[in-house]
């Protein structure tokens, strides 16, 4: 299958290994835990099921009496018994319909509620996982588990669950009434049930395994489609439409083959069940006819028995279908619970320390860091420095020196491999993630805005802020003027990822968002590198206002940022090799002066490039 260069193969489980189908119903037991808040609905639904199914078990006996009242009293003019039986039948049908509808609604509502809670739980848990997890899993696969997999589970928890209760009551009651009507005929009828059960279990296990393969294949295809749609400009610019069609087509073909295999097994099971069920009825008719001819039973009793046998046969067939659905749900719920079982590699202590009145002193003590999935070499090694509150620190170095990784450690997107990273003297691993990140602001190179209005995106920095505070933040970010120029002003929709705004406008909205958050520590990851000169000047001015009074780490892009920094750290191969002011580093020579002079020459030539 075609794959993009450098892309990792998708895995069927969060652990990156092919997950084996579960061997028991532990997933369903876990689903039951989600049903606990809705036990009253479940109990009422079960009561309605018992009543409805019980009423359905009465009418075959009344039908038998109707037959005997009609055919065994030929020539009689007394229609009273016949009339009473018909009225009783109509009453039973009406009550059965009422309780059946109530049962269907109650259990469906419970199922919808359980699945809604399950979706919320999965999504909420995903938000607690670290960037390392998302770096190794495709977004399309995760969204597929939230949608397609949970949808499969919903069918079982609502519709199939209602049918399971109903059909179980019908099966038990029908078998009991079969024996009460005719024990001999019952033995003939029920002889085939063990064969049906063994067949259902044998084929059902294969259906369960293939259902998991279907879900995995659909998730892989969804991931491929999402990547192509998000990067459609790149796809079109490289005229790679045919490659993407082929890649998505291969994924769909794989899911189609798996679905076809599942359909074949389901068809095989349905055919076998149908033959066994109706074959048993044929034997009942043959043997029952002989019983009527010998006078052992009346025609009405034979009719009643046939109805009961038909109910039992239909119930067994329905239960095999429900069994299939539960097998599919086991595969889908397995993928869902894999996500819920995924543990973050950023554990929080049971009693995190408080982070009050943050000053913004950041200290790296013998800090080293390894990603773990990029070989054994350290991305950062033995970092030792301390940044004072309110200080502006520029990070300089060639590509791959570890600048972005260093700033990612401060909000604890990753944990240090060794050493200690502390804020105001407290190890960040002993703080709650929420308290830590609430005091850290990030303005990245590629700004992500959410598909809503400009105001909603700025409010992301501090939900609940007033309109005046939002506009004040926008003014400080040099964004108010262009926002006010839009016909809809602050209610202008920005489109997915802010695509309707220019790069400079997106950055200024992001800066307004950071200003509204008012963090004590600010991280700027080449925030102006992708902008034109005019936009960069506006953004740089906004950034300078934002950095006032805050501890700021700036991955340097322009000479002005470097020169104005109170301190410059020069990184190479994950180590800090120089530390000082611009004047000190220029005087001492080395890598910093080489980078500076290289950029200076380029700017002299009229070309602005990254230092």
Quick overview of this protein structure:
This protein is an alpha/beta fold and 611 residues long. The chain contains 21 helices and 10 strands. It has 3 domains: 29-341, ABC transporter transmembrane region fold, CATH 1.20.1560.10; 353-439 and 519-611, Rossmann fold (3-Layer(aba) Sandwich); 447-518, 3-Layer(aba) Sandwich (Rossmann fold), CATH 3.40.50.300.
**What count of domains describes the coordinates?**
3
CATH architecture grouping of the largest domain: Up-down Bundle
Note the gap between the termini: 40 Å
Tell me the strand percentage band.
5-15%
CATH topology of the largest domain: ABC transporter transmembrane region fold
Strand order of the largest sheet: 6-7-8-3-9-10
Query: Helix coverage percent of residues?
Result: 55-70%
GO molecular function: ABC-type oligopeptide transporter activity; ATP binding; ATP hydrolysis activity
Main location: membrane
Membrane topology: Multi-pass membrane protein
Organism: Deinococcus ruber
């Amino acid at each position: 299958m075609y794959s993009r260069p450098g892309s990792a193969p998708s895995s069927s489980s969060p652990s990156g290994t092919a997950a084996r189908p579960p061997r028991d119903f532990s997933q369903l037991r876990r689903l039951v835990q989600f049903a606990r808040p809705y036990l009253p609905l479940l109990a009422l639904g079960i009561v309605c099921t018992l009543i409805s199914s019980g009423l359905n078990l009465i009418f075959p006996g009344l039908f038998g009496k109707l037959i005997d009242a009609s055919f065994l009293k030929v020539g009689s003019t007394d229609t009273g018994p016949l009339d009473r039986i018909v009225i009783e039948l109509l009453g039973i049908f009406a009550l059965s319909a009422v309780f059946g509808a109530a049962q269907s609604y109650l259990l469906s509502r419970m199922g919808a509620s359980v699945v809604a809670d399950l979706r919320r739980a999965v999504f909420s848990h995903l938000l607690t996982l670290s960037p390392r997890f998302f770096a190794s899993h495709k977004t399309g696969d995760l969204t597929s588990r939230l949608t397609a997999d949970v949808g499969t589970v919903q069918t079982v928890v609502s519709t199939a669950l209602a049918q399971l209760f109903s059909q179980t009551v019908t099966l038990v009651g029908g078998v009991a009434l079969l024996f009460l009507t005719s024990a001999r005929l019952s033995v003939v009828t029920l002889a085939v049930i063990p064969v049906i059960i063994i067949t259902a279990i044998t084929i059902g296990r294969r259906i369960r395994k293939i259902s998991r393969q279907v879900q995995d294949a659909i998730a892989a295809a969804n991931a491929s489609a999402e990547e192509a749609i998000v990067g459609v400009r790149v796809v079109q610019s490289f005229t790679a439409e045919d490659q993407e069609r082929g890649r998505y087509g291969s994924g769909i073909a794989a899911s189609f083959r798996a679905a076809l295999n599942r359909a074949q097994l389901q068809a095989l099971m349905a055919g076998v069940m149908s033959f066994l069920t109706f074959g048993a009825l044929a034997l009942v008719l043959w043997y029952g006819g002989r019983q009527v001819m010998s006078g052992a039973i009346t025609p009405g009793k034979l009719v009643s028995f046939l109805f009961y046998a038909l109910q039992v046969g239909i119930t067994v067939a329905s239960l095999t279908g429900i069994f299939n659905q539960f097998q599919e749900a086991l595969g889908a719920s397995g993928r869902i619970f894999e996500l819920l079982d995924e543990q973050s590699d950023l554990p929080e202590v049971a009693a995190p320390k408080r982070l009050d009145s943050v000053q913004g002193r950041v200290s790296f003590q013998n800090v080293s860091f390894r990603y773990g999935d990029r070989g054994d070499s350290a991305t950062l090694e033995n970092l030792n420095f301390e940044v004072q509150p309110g200080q502006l620190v520029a990070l300089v170095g060639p590509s791959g020196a570890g600048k972005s990784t260093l700033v990612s450690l401060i909000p604890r997107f990753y944990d240090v491999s060794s050493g200690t990273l502390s804020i105001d003297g407290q190890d960040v691993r002993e703080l709650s993630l929420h308290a830590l990140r609430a005091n850290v602001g990030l303005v990245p190179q590629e700004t992500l805005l959410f598909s809503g209005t400009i105001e909603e995106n700025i409010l992301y920095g501090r939900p609940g802020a007033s309109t005046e505070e939002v506009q004040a933040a926008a003014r400080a970010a040099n964004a108010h003027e262009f926002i006010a120029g839009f016909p809809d002003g602050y209610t202008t929709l920005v489109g997915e990822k802010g695509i309707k705004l220019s790069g400079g406008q997106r950055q200024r909205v992001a800066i307004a968002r950071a200003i509204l958050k008012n963090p004590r520590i600010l991280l700027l990851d080449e925030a102006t590198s992708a902008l034109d000169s005019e936009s960069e000047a506006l953004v740089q001015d906004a950034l300078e206002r934002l950095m006032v009074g805050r501890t700021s780490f700036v991955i340097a892009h322009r000479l002005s940022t470097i020169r104005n920094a109170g301190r410059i750290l020069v990184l190479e191969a994950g180590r800090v090799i120089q530390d000082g002011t611009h004047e000190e580093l220029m005087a001492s020579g080395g890598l910093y002066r080489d980078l500076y002079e290289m950029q200076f020459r380029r700017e002299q030539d009229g070309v602005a490039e990254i230092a």
